[in-house]
## 1
Amino acid sequence: MKNLRLMLVLAAALVAGAPAFAAEEAAKPDPAMMEKVKAQMSPGEPHKTLEPFAGKWNYKAKFWASPEAEPEETTGTTESAIVWGGRFLKEETKGTWMNEPFEGVGYTGYDNVKGEYVSVWMDSMMTGIMTMSGQYDAAAKTLKMAGANSCPMTGEKARPCRAETKMVDANHYTYSAFSAGADGKEFKGMEIEYTRQ
């Protein structure tokens, strides 16, 4: 009788453990899938497009509040570096804007899953975060991106905008930003010229 009870207890334990064992086997990673995931998580050729922007830069900037306005001009510095194993370009900017101290930080990378460049920007003049995405035009050496940001001037929660970052040569690049004016037509609201220190 004792042997029968022991056999029943062992059989019950085996039956109870079978689903857990099956789940454990199913949870083992598929090597081919893991290689695909690893490739999606790793920097590649598109990320190398961002490398020339790394370094220390002086900049001259112009801002237009409207198409007919005279530009406001300012200067500052930007220090950029490739971070996190080649995945992102980090930009840290210091200068002035509207005669006030200005600081900003941004990250630009290439999202392998989405198949596009992505960026975020935040600074000391806004409480929102600007997000953009787009593609690199190799022939024009220009990163073309579009997105939206909250606008304290117009009150828009998601004001459409676009930007073009062009590598002129090893020591110079430009950044131009565009948005819609009061008439709905696009105009250039910002132009920044960078010179390597």
## 2
Amino acid sequence: MTPLQPLLARSCGLLLLSTLAACALVDDPVARAMRKVTPYRIEVVQGNFVSKEQVQALRPGMTRNQVKEILGTPLIASVFHADRWDYAFTIQRKGTQPQQRKLSVFFQNDAFFRAEGDDLPSESEFAERLSVPEDRKKVPRLQATAQELDKFKSDAVSSSLPESAPDASLPRKTYPPLESPAR
């Protein structure tokens, strides 16, 4: 082995490493575009949505089947808590706040006794929260005050008035006729 071989091997190794490091610094437009692409996020809905109106329709003494007709099948009906049904609802949509609600329905002797849980939205409130993105801009006021309307009317009247008579010192412009007089 000659004394130059280890030096040559080290030089080749450093050259290879520096070349690979330089590749990381190259601005690749395809790679840049791929970093901006985000995967599709599926809308996740779990459980039963229970509205304020549905809970208000419950009356003490209703049977389990009547409660099930109003609220739907419970998400959790545990063997260990036979007198309790739990309804849970979560939804995650892109552009809106995640929503999560819980409701527990209690029975005594197989008859509805009481319900407790989160403050539930009405059906219209729930639908509005689904369709309104978080980053929605504030809607501008679309009504004019009486003063603004009066100003608009006065501006319209002044613009419709004929302008003052033309200045006599300026020469009048004449234009050739559009059609020949021979017709």
## 3
Amino acid sequence: MSNSQIPTDKVDAYLGTRYDVMVDDHTIHLTIGEPSVDMAEYFQRQGVASAALITAFNPFGAVQADDANAAANQKLEQAVREDGLKFLPASGSGEGWPAEPGFWVLGIELDRARSLGKAFSQDAIVWMDLEAIPRLILLR
């Protein structure tokens, strides 16, 4: 992470963020670096080997107006739909930062997840494979 253009304090904030995925009638909480038995079981039930949490809110961590964020997230949702991928509502929230809605995109390849995050000017995405350990993937 040391080669990133993202300030260290911002990376630390992303690492300390709680990521929530809305699954059926409950929420699965994800913490970077901590295995998620619940998500591993969900992957198995869904027959997927990966997922990514991607948002279009607040490009590069700069607060935007609610309508701009909503419009950007709608475009992200359309891009995910065009890829034919299943997704769930998700969000990330940290200390002093409001929850940012996004999508937990099931079965997405890491390269495509990075591409979408970059297309929507995000600093990072959260990635998970079959190990079911959420990882912060920096994009710049």
